[in-house]
TrEMBL record:
GO terms for molecular function: (S)-2-hydroxy-acid oxidase activity; FMN binding. Keywords: Flavoprotein, FMN, Oxidoreductase. GO terms for cellular component: peroxisome. This is (S)-2-hydroxy-acid oxidase.
């Protein structure tokens, strides 16, 4: 195990430049070129055809230009100074591969298994909220795209489509459900019962949100869901006075800040599904996860949206893989944008990676989001 993972070596890069966050003159030239390319047409044969996107950054640039400012800021947000959000990407660029040559690579197979289920490649869809802000079909389109390429889709609690609508739209899809623990445990219990009955295959317990992170642009924008959108999984479940404070579509202070390891045991007591913990960043917590009998962990800092100043997910991966020693499956999300990023994560011991923001960029693309979503998922593992 160790010898396989040491093929990815972390070293400082001599020059790091990230188009999404830097503002160099060269970057602006690249963005200008990209905009021209996206707006150009192939008139061969007497009709106009948009030129194909060639990387995830192209989708990012398109989404930034075409989504509303409040929506873009919500998807792009990081906590406080956004240092951890940005470092999720930069950390991959600090890792260097040690390529071996003259190896027969004429035949390759990207299939893998997660929790015993075979998927086409080791890239799944991370739980992200409010997909209908990017495209009117929202999570329904996301589920169909994931089903079409045979990969895992982790449905967010904060979906703008209900779990029933998602399951009906992609009945053959492989889905997990991302769960929070609420002050009213009955809310969590009811949604667990719903997803079990709908054929979801695992529960992903998010543990890094005792309180919502301070996302400055959301505060400046006074971000709220537009009136026609709801957190559909909780529709009709809250008795709330008109004008009462909300936080991202549900009543404020609904999340339980007292959540602890005993709640992992409680969750296991009410479900037959595997439990995967999302938000592990230290070997100590990874060891506790194993002790509590969970089936997997997702190494994640919530896309840098919760706690600024924590480690990049990829930087935390190795110590967690070493701690669990193969006893449970280890996954990672945060900052994955290219096939080489996927390769680095696998080399460092991840079973599978999950991508979040690129999925909503794909949803936002033109009027063909299901196709664009499929392209996003195909672009990522193109080694």
């Amino acid at each position: 195990m160790r010898s396989e993972r040491t093929q990815a070596v972390g070293r400082p890069a001599k020059q790091l430049r990230l188009r999404s966050f830097c503002r160099s003159g060269q970057e602006e030239e690249e963005k200008t070129f990209s905009r021209k390319r996206m707006n150009s047409f192939d008139r061969e044969g007497g009709h106009c055809t948009e030129m194909a996107m060639v990387c995830l950054t192209d989708f990012e640039e398109y989404a930034k230009e075409h989504l509303s400012k409040a929506t873009w800021d919500y998807y792009a947000a990081g906590a406080d100074d956004c240092c951890t959000r940005d470092d999720n990407l930069l950390a991959f660029k600090r890792i260097r591969l040690r390529p071996r040559i003259l190896r027969d690579v004429s035949v390759s197979d990207t299939r893998t298994t997660v929790q015993g289920m075979e998927i086409s490649f080791p890239v799944g869809v991370a739980p992200t909220a409010f997909h209908c802000l990017a495209w009117h079909e929202g999570e329904v389109a996301t589920a169909r795209a994931a089903e079409s390429v045979n990969t895992c889709y982790i449905t967010s609690t904060y979906s703008t489509c209900s779990v029933e609508e998602i399951a009906a739209a992609a009945p053959g899809g492989y889905r997990w459900f991302q769960l929070y623990v609420y002050r009213d445990r009955k809310l969590s219990e009811l949604i667990v019962q719903r997803v079990e009955s709908l054929g979801y295959k695992a529960l992903v317990l998010t543990v890094d949100v005792p309180y919502t992170g301070k996302r400055r642009n959301d505060i400046r924008n006074q971000f709220k869901l537009p009136p026609h959108l709801k957190v559909k999984n909780f529709e009709g479940m809250f008795q709330q006075e008109t004008g009462a404070p909300e936080e991202y579509g549900i009543p404020a202070n609904t999340l339980d800040p007292s959540i602890s390891w005993k709640d992992v045991s409680w969750l296991q007591s009410i479900t037959r599904l595997p439990v995967i913990i999302k938000g592990i960043l230290t070997k100590e917590d990874a060891e506790l996860a194993v002790e509590h009998g969970v089936q997997g962990v997702i190494v994640s800092n919530h896309g840098g949206r919760q706690l600024d100043g924590g480690p990049a997910s990829i930087d935390a991966l190795s110590e967690i893989v070493d701690a669990v020693q193969g006893r449970i499956e280890v996954y990672v999300d945060g900052g994955i944008r290219t096939g080489s990023d996927v390769l680095k994560a696998l080399a460092l011991g991840a079973r599978c990676v999950f991508i979040g923001r690129p999925v909503v960029w794909g949803l936002a693309y033109k009027n063909i989001p299901p196709h664009a979503m499929t392209e996003v998922l195909h672009f990522t593992p193109s080694f």
